[in-house]
Design goal:
Elements (H helix, E strand, L loop, with lengths): L4 E10 L2 E10 L4 H8 L1 H4 L9 E4 L2 E3 L12 E5 L6 H11 L1
């Protein structure tokens, strides 16, 4: 029997460009596998899949390689922070 296919999306954004790639994947596909299947790294070769932080609709997932997707999920690949948020707040406070 064929496994049920579910519809998901993979999203990545830069300040000047974004890409949302719709995919049909078999039930049980992980977030990491969906990102691999999406081909997003062809558009954004700077993404380092092994270390990239990912989330589902803005909620971070701790282990993309074991997080099974559900119908309608959007896997978001997060860019590394340029500066630690605490340091950014300190910098803003000093400028006051």
């Amino acid at each position: 029997m064929d496994k049920l296919k579910i519809q998901v999306e993979v999203a990545y954004a830069l300040p000047e460009q974004q890409k949302i790639i719709p995919l049909a994947v078999v039930e049980g596909t992980t977030a990491y596998e969906a990102v691999q299947m999406s081909g997003v790294t062809h558009f954004f070769p700077q993404i380092e899949l092994e270390s990239a932080k990912m989330g589902i609709f803005g909620k971070a997932i701790s282990d993309p390689k074991s997080h099974a997707l559900r119908e309608g999920d959007r896997v978001e690949i997060y860019r590394p922070l340029k500066i630690d948020p605490k340091q950014a707040r300190l910098n803003r406070a000093k400028k006051g």
